[in-house]
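Ticket #4471: structure export looks truncated?
Reporter: QA, pipeline team
Priority: medium

Steps to reproduce: submit the single chain below to the structure queue and open the exported record.
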Amino acid sequence: MAVILLCPPRFDDDRGWFSETYNKRREAEGGIAAEFVQDNQSLSAQAGTLRGIHFQSPPHAQAKLVRCTRGRALDVVVDLRRGSPTFGKHVSTELSFANGRQLFIPAGFGHAFVTREPGTEIAYKVDDYYDPASEGGLRWDCPDLAINWGLEGAPAISDKDAKLPRLREFDTLFAYDGQPLELIVR
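Actual output as written to the record:
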């Protein structure tokens, strides 16, 4: 399954705007058949806050639908599927309150973001419940991933994220589904 960048329309008038941010039927017609069971939200007080690269391994792997409800962030998705020709490669895009874009991330991919503005909020739906035993991650600064975060200086990260392994120390449980990493815009 592909990583999909959704661009829901906004309908503007003199009061502001309206947007339908999620429609199960529309998303299923566009290739997103996830049954979301939990919504999560984070607030990052300062610009340069980096969260990730996170995932949940099988049997509790999660697909995510991510959006920025305030501020702006660079969102990054890393292919973690064994046997994938794009294993360890990534795609990135800017999500912001202003652009209203959303990113669908299938299970089998790591997810991270770095905030570009203070007070950035990220909200996302997941299709499996949080399971501490399935939780995993990779170091944000892993040289094998070579992600350009666009940072000036070190990011604000959690102690937990600072201790994550590098890609070469990671034994993935995700299976390749036959589709290399690609970002589809809808």
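Status: closed, not a bug. The export was complete when the record was re-opened. Leaving a note from the reviewer for reference: Helices lie at 24-29, 159-162.
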